[in-house]
Specification:
Order of helices and strands: HHHHEHEHEHEEHEEHEEEHEEEHEEEHEE
CATH superfamily of the largest domain: Bira Bifunctional Protein, Domain 2
Distance between the termini: 52 Å
Largest sheet: 8 strands, mixed
Number of strands: 18
Radius of gyration: 27 Å
Oligomer: single chain
CATH topology of the largest domain: BirA Bifunctional Protein, domain 2
Amino acid sequence: MHDIRWIRENPANFDSAIGKRGLEAAAAALVELDAQRRHVQTELQELQTQRNETSKKIGVAKGKGEKAIPLVKEVGELKNKMLSLEGEEKTLSAELNDLLSEIPNLPSADTPLGKGEEDNVELRVEGRPPEFGFEPKDHVTLGENLSGMSFEKAGKLSGARFVVLSGALARLERALASFMLDVQTIEYGYTEVSPPVLVKDKALYGTGQLPKFADDLFKTTEDLWLIPTAEVPLTNLVANEILAEGELPIRVTALTPCFRSEAGAAGKDTRGMLRQHQFNKVELVSICHPQNSLEEHERMLGAAEQILKRLGLAYRVVVLCTGDIGFSAQKTYDLEVWMPGQNKFREISSCSNCGEFQARRMKARFRSDNEKGTQFVHTLNGSGLAVGRCLIAVMENYQNEDGSITVPEELRPYMNGLECIT
């Protein structure tokens, strides 16, 4: 959510910033609507003052035993005018709020300009893709040959974009999730949380998925939504809160199933586990002081990278351009892991700094020890990592010519010492 006062004072800067996202100028229309709303509010205040003064006159007249019928009539007329203006003010405020709710966050000054993913900027590549003495298979062929991955059975149960994992592959997925949580909680100080996966409208509004992206979500008949990411419940833990400055930063993590309709991905990544309606993910969320959010962003990126480094997977770090960052983000790093079965890097984590954008929508603030009033916190979120995609990466990078999969050393304690899946 944007601060209308800031837009009023910086209309050119606002239009320039949303223009980098490919949006048309909007400041003039927003400021005009806000002016109408404030004019009505001023009228209301004046009428309230007039009504109060007239009410006092009624009291004085009655105290003197004088008739106050004209004054009572005047108060009634003022009340009717106020009711009409209150309705108008409510309509204008709702219209302004709706318009502001549809406008994405402003990109940071160091976010590269661009129209789409082809304009994202590679920062660095870590590790080397494995060299095979044979033609590497993709995860679908590997999984089905091991009888541990079935899209056919999932299709009978649920339809397309689902999978049934079994045996050692199911355990490998669980091992990956446990390993990720242990690294993030023990080594990086994130507090593990087990949140609900069904949330109310206001939670999704707070993090920016609603109202604009309802088609990407699943909704129940009880008016609850299945979460697309644990970012939603974790970030909303501080909604409508006023935190003490000493409580910051708050770092939380959760392993949850995530649910996405993939409405805009028709025909994209239809093979295998790359893009599913249901998948598991370890999410990282930080709530911090505005002065520390840039540093916190780099720290979160490092926490996500650590998983790939420890698993010995080659990956690259990409900074997303203005045309590819998410709705609530002002800057985003993507981690893309090497997938031999596709012979290219694929996204496995996005780490975003949202600044105060989500905090404004959630009314999440903190009180400084040395300053009056309150300030909005800064929120950050990132995958640490997407478990299903990490499973794919391990399967494809650690495959052997006979179709077996070597278990990375870091995961063997979680697999009861198993060294190879055959």
